[in-house]
């Protein structure tokens, strides 16, 4: 069967497809693997208890149960949930935001597909506008969502080496060069894959540039504040009429509910709502229903601050200590862990590529993500991108320990010239 150009974009090899296939295989229990590659959040018992109790209340209320499973929601998203979100952000941050500034999507990945192809791509005048990624590496899921070639243009970071095998990326503002064919700037904060948290100063500088060029700044806040608040450094959230802020319920503990959140100017929300109607008719009700009480009461912020954030910070500290122990004697750097649920490892001068390392580890039952997938929009073959891998520490501690030990073994083999 012949496929259209549209379909061909989704049938070719893709990093995000590889990631999710690995994740699905690992979590299905079909293979005995150490899944250190995906972004699946931990199953935090206290959080799952809140969700379980809310689901039970829905089941115990026949009218609410009937509504959740039996009625279409608006293509903008469930109205009460959107109103509760607007109230939460006004209360928490004193933002001038209302329900007309919020739309839900079928997961944040679907939201970025809509946003990027709405603001970038081919326009009525025939011009092509691109999405600027001011600092890569960036989220693997961005790379393949464009409906035109070369949707992204990206800039390499400044690399600051710190002490104790640690480094940090910074935006190279001298090299941004925002031309007329740039439709938007986009950053994730905390950054997936590195755990970098752009400073308030960096965000402020990006906002100034975006305002001067009359383009929006898209901030992927999937791990940020106020929920799930997996942020281990000082940072303040930002939203205004020049910002498109994207959030999710996934890392709160509801990845299966596929609920993305977009906060933006009303014209953007209207366009997203219309696209939701065409593509989905309406959005799923389970995510908003399960999270409604937490958002309405503001409890979601307390849970994020007192349960979710400390939980991941402890896991990050254990994983970092483990890596320092197991990687002793290896030439490596680890990006400073400032948030999210990943560690980004750099092996300068590694004699094999990160993709080959991925294959070697996969044969030993350890799944990571090769670093080269995280550089969309970079039109050069930078060696650094083939020297890095992303690992997650959100799995059980015994799985993380076993996986890190095997990674260390394979890295030593590679540096010693041993075959797999």
Topology:
Elements (H helix, E strand, L loop, with lengths): L4 H7 L3 H13 L6 E2 L9 H16 L1 H9 L8 H15 L8 E4 L2 H12 L1 E2 L5 E6 L18 E3 L3 E4 L4 E5 L11 E7 L11 H14 L3 E4 L22 E6 L11 E4 L2 H15 L5 H12 L1 H28 L6 E3 L6 E5 L7 H10 L2 E2 L1 E2 L17 E5 L4 H19 L5
Parallel strand pairs: 1-14, 4-5, 4-8, 7-12, 8-9, 9-10
Antiparallel strand pairs: 2-11, 3-4, 6-7, 10-11, 12-13, 13-16, 15-16
Helix pairs in contact: 3-9, 5-9, 10-12
What does it look like?
By secondary structure, the chain is of the alpha/beta class. The chain has 2 domains: 5-47 and 303-415, Alpha-Beta Complex (Aspartate Aminotransferase, domain 1), CATH 3.90.1150.10; 73-297, Type I PLP-dependent aspartate aminotransferase-like (Major domain) (Aspartate Aminotransferase, domain 2). 40% of the residues lie in helices and 15% in strands. The protein has helices at residues 5-11, 15-27, 45-60, 62-70, 79-93, 108-119, 200-213, 266-280, 286-297, 299-326, 354-363, 397-415, and strands at 34-35, 102-105, 121-122, 128-133, 152-154, 158-161, 166-170, 182-188, 217-220, 243-248, 260-263, 333-335, 342-346, 366-367, 369-370, 388-392. Strands 2, 3, 4, 5, 8, 9, 10 and 11 form an 8-stranded mixed sheet that branches. A hairpin with a 6-residue loop joins strand 12 (333-335) and strand 13. Helix 3 crosses helix 9 and helix 10 (299-326) runs parallel beside helix 12 (397-415). The relative contact order is 0.17.
């Amino acid at each position: 069967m012949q496929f259209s150009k549209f379909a061909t974009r989704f049938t070719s090899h893709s990093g995000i497809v590889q990631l999710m296939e690995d994740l699905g295989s690992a979590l299905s229990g079909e293979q005995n693997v150490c899944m250190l590659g995906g972004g699946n959040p931990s199953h935090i018992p206290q959080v799952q208890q809140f969700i379980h109790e809310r689901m039970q209340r829905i089941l115990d209320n026949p009218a609410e149960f009937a509504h959740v499973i039996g009625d279409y929601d608006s293509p903008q998203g469930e109205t009460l949930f959107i109103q509760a979100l607007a109230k939460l952000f006004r209360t928490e941050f004193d933002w001038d935001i209302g329900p007309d500034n919020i739309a839900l999507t079928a997961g944040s990945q679907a939201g970025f597909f809509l946003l990027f192809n709405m603001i970038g791509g081919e326009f009525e005048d025939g011009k092509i506008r691109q999405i600027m990624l001011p600092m890569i590496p960036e989220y693997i899921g961005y790379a393949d969502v464009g409906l035109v070639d070369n949707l992204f243009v990206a800039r390499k970071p400044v690399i600051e080496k710190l002490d104790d095998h640690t480094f940090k990326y910074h935006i190279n503002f001298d090299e941004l060069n925002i031309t007329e064919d740039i439709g938007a700037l986009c950053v994730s904060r905390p950054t997936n894959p590195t755990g970098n948290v752009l400073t308030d100063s960096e965000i402020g500088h990006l906002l100034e540039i975006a305002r001067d060029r009359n383009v929006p700044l898209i901030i992927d806040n999937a791990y940020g504040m106020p929920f799930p608040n997996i942020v281990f450094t000082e940072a303040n959230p930002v939203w205004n009429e020049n910002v498109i802020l994207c959030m999710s319920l996934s890392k709160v503990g509801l990845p299966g509910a596929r609920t993305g959140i977009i906060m933006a100017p009303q014209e953007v929300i209207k366009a997203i709502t219309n696209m939701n109607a065409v593509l989905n008719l309406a959005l799923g009700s389970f995510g908003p229903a399960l999270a409604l009480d937490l958002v309405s009461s503001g409890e979601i912020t307390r849970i994020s601050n007192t349960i979710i954030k400390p939980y991941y910070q402890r896991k990050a500290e254990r994983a970092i200590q483990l890596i320092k122990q197991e990687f002793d004697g290896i030439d490596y750097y680890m990006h400073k862990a400032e948030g999210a649920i990943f560690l980004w490892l750099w092996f300068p001068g590694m004699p094999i590529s990160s993709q080959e390392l991925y294959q070697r580890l996969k044969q030993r039952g350890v799944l990571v993500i090769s670093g080269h997938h995280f550089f969309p929009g970079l039109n050069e073959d930078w060696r650094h991108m083939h020297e890095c891998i992303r690992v997650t520490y959100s799995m059980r501690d015994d799985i993380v320990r076993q996986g890190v030990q095997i990674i260390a073994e394979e890295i030593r083999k590679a540096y010693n010239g041993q075959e797999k």
